[in-house]
Automatic annotation (TrEMBL):
Subcellular locations according to the entry: Membrane
InterPro entries linked to this entry: ZIP, ZIP_Transporter
Recorded topology in the membrane: Multi-pass membrane protein
Chief place where the protein resides: membrane
Organism: Scleropages formosus
Name the UniProt record assigns to this protein: Solute carrier family 39 member 4
GO BP annotations, alphabetical order: intracellular monoatomic cation homeostasis; zinc ion import across plasma membrane
Keyword terms, alphabetized: Membrane, Transmembrane, Transmembrane helix
GO terms of molecular function: monoatomic cation:bicarbonate symporter activity; zinc ion transmembrane transporter activity
CC terms in the record's Gene Ontology section: plasma membrane
The keyword Disulfide bond appears for this protein: no
Amino acid sequence: MVTIGDGVHNFADGLAIGAAFSVSWRSGLATSLAVLCHELPHELGDFAILLHCGLSVKRALLLNVGSAMTSFIGLYISLSVSTDPAAKDWIAAITAGLFLYVGLADMLPCMIHANSRKPWLMFILQNLGLLSGWGILLLLSLYEDKIGF
């Protein structure tokens, strides 16, 4: 179930990256950076869950890489259909909906039901992480036009 959910999530990441690159390379780069920032801890967490479930390191790594490959499918689909402006809007809506679903149906319940001996510390750390992520996304959206090499 973890691998299937991760595959759908990675597919949505690919859709987002492809749609962003179809707008401009700067938008694509900013979106890729944002996806990288949220995918690194997500993939490490999925890997840890698979190991905790009793899978070998090799099998867990294979499942993780396999689910990550679905992002390329989303990328290719998005790049091929995003020449139409209406398709870009639909891709953005679908991707935003999938991201909201993952955040509200998967992450939020885990955050609410986290067991800790210091609940206030957990609360502060969770909110610090959320605010940091939102801040990074805000900075990326404000300054994506100024990204250059």
